[in-house]
Each structure stands twice: as C-alpha cells, then as structure tokens.
Design a protein that fits this description.
The protein is an all-alpha fold. It is elongated. About 10% of the residues are buried. The mean pLDDT is about 85.
Length: about 140
C-alpha cells in the first residue's frame, strides 16, 4: 500500500483533531479500505480459499469456485462486518508498528468465524481409501 498511499503513515500518526479536518486523508483511508475489502477479498482471497479447500478435500479448483459463487453473499457480508471496521481503525489510528499485530488479531477472529461458517462436517469430504493406506503402513 505504501506506493499507492504514500501519506498513509503520516495520516495515521496525526492527532485525531487533524484527522477529522483532513478530508483528503479520510478519502485516502477509505480508498485503502475499499481496495482491501471490495477488490482484494472478493476477487482474490475467497476464490483462493475455496479452491484450495476443495483441492485439499479431493475436489477441483472449479468446484471451489462454484461453492464460492453459492456462498458469496453470506461470506462477504460476514467478512465486511468484521474487517471494514477493523481496517478503518487500522488505517486511521494504528501506528505503523501496531498494524501487523492488529491485523493478525483480526485475522485470528476471522479464521474462527470462517471455520465455524465453512468448516463443518457437512462440507468436509474424505476419501476412505486414503485412510486405509495410512492404516496399513
């Protein structure tokens, strides 16, 4: 983001009163949130997540994309409920040294939510032949 938003660190370091009157800074912060949440996640993160999950479970990437299409609305709404406020806090108030711990903590929460939503037994497919191979070795 540093090249796209070179003044982000200065905006984050500014006092709250300066941030509230910095309309250009607020617009840039919202642009960062938009790029991360409405471009990166729908176009890259979720397709990669679903494709990898399907391949690990014996399916194909295309099967993962089909599941993503089916779950897209619910997944994105859940993601945005957590990540949009978190990224606004991150890009507005977090000093540069605090951004990684903040995002890592949010990621932990998101992983728990996503595991609850999409990691249930009804979505896990196994191949019994693989288990038998491990048992005989």
């Amino acid at each position: 983001f540093g090249r796209l938003f070179p003044t982000a660190a200065a905006f984050a370091a500014a006092p709250l009163s300066a941030k509230l009157s910095d309309f250009t800074g607020i617009r840039r912060m919202l642009s960062q949130v938009f790029l991360d949440q409405f471009v990166h996640h729908p176009i890259m993160y979720f397709p990669a997540f679903y494709s990898l999950k399907e391949v690990v479970n014996g399916g194909t990437p295309q099967m993962g994309i089909e599941k993503y299409r089916k779950n897209c609305t619910e997944d994105l709404l859940a993601l945005w409920k957590l990540w949009v406020p978190s990224m606004i806090i991150n890009f507005t108030f977090m000093p540069m040294y605090g951004r990684i711990p903040w995002v890592a903590t949010t990621s932990l929460l998101w992983t728990c939510i996503l595991s609850y939503m999409r990691g249930g037994a009804e979505t896990f497919e196994t191949n019994p032949g693989i288990a038998e191979t491990f048992e005989t070795n």
